Structure formats: structure tokens, C-alpha cells
Amino acid sequence: MKANNKKYILIPVLCAWVCCAGAQTLAHRDSITKTARADAKHFRLKKAVWKKYRHKLPYTSDYFKPTAAVVKDTALLHDSVYVDTYRQEAFKTNRGRRTAGHYVLLGGEIVVGVAAAFITAILIFVTPKLGG
Predict the structure, then answer these.
(1) How many angstroms separate the Cα of 58 from the Cα of each of 35, 67, 109, 126?
(2) CA nearest 41: which of 79, 94, 4?
(3) Of residues 48, 57, 132, 120, the one with CA closest to residue 93
(4) Where on the phi/psi map is residue 54: left (φ > 0), alpha (ψ -120 to 50), or beta?
(5) What is the rounded CA–CA span in Å between residue 102 and residue 110?
(6) What is the pLDDT of residues 84-103, one digit of tens each?
(7) What angle do CA 28, 30, 36 make, to 5 degrees?
(8) Residues 6+ positions from 57 with CB-CB distance below 8 Å
(9) Other CB atoms closer than 10 Å to residue 49's CB: what's the count?
């Protein structure tokens, strides 16, 4: 076999080996990301911290950093992909958090809107019959 023929066989074999190694790395990264999302699903900032900063904290803040008490596998605390994903997901869960007053105000607006619609409907259907 000539040297040129060996070169043509070696190149596809090397490409296949590199692709398989890359696919394994991506699969491992996806499983770490999935674990971090599951761990961060129930994360909540402490009430005092949340009231102080509300929506002003970036996701890189140390308040969103995972601790050994909240993760299932403490070995993942040293993995940068896990920590970054955990912080992003913990930030997302607290971004939509509101105060009780917000929900009371929202509920009041809904009640007023429904009452106004009900009164308008009564006026539309009853008033023409009263005119005789």
C-alpha cells in the first residue's frame, strides 16, 4: 500500500474519532445541565434579601450560588457548567416572584372589571325594556 492511500484511510478514521468524542462531551454536558435545572427548581431567595434587592440582582450574584445543602450531588459544586446553569435557573425562578400586595391588587382589579362588565350588561339589556 502506498503512503498516499494510508493518508486517505487515516483522515476519515480520525474525523470519526473526533466526532464521537465531541458527542460524548455534549451528552455529559446535557445531563449536568438537566441536573442543575432540577436542583434549582425549588430555589428561593431568603425573604430579607429578596425584599432588599427585588429584581436588581444579576444571575451572577453569590446569592444564586448553589450550596451543599440544596444540591443532590455535592461533587457537582466544582463543575463550572453545573454552577452556571444552577445560577441561571435560580435567577429565573426568582425573577417572576411578586409580593402579596401585588396579588391583592391584581385580584381587586379583576373583581372591579367583572363587576363593571356585569353592570354594563344589565344596563344594556334592562334599560330598553324600562322605556316601554
Answers:
(1) 22, 18, 31, 56
(2) 94
(3) 57
(4) left
(5) 12
(6) 998 888 888 887 777 788 88
(7) 105
(8) 63, 64, 91
(9) 14
Q: How far apart are CA 92 and CA 55, in angstroms?
A: 11
Separation CA 103–CA 90 (nearest Å): 22
Per-residue cell: 98? 411578586
- Lookup: cell for 28: 455529559
C-alpha cell, 58: 444579576
Cell triple for residue 45?
Answer: 431567595
User: What is the Cα–Cα distance from 132 to 126, expressed in whole angstroms?
Assistant: 11
CB 50 within 8 A of CB 97: yes
How confident is the model over 35-71, as pLDDT tens digits? Answer: 888 888 888 888 888 778 777 878 778 888 888 888 8
Q: What is the CA radius of gyration of the chain?
A: 29
Residue type, 123: L
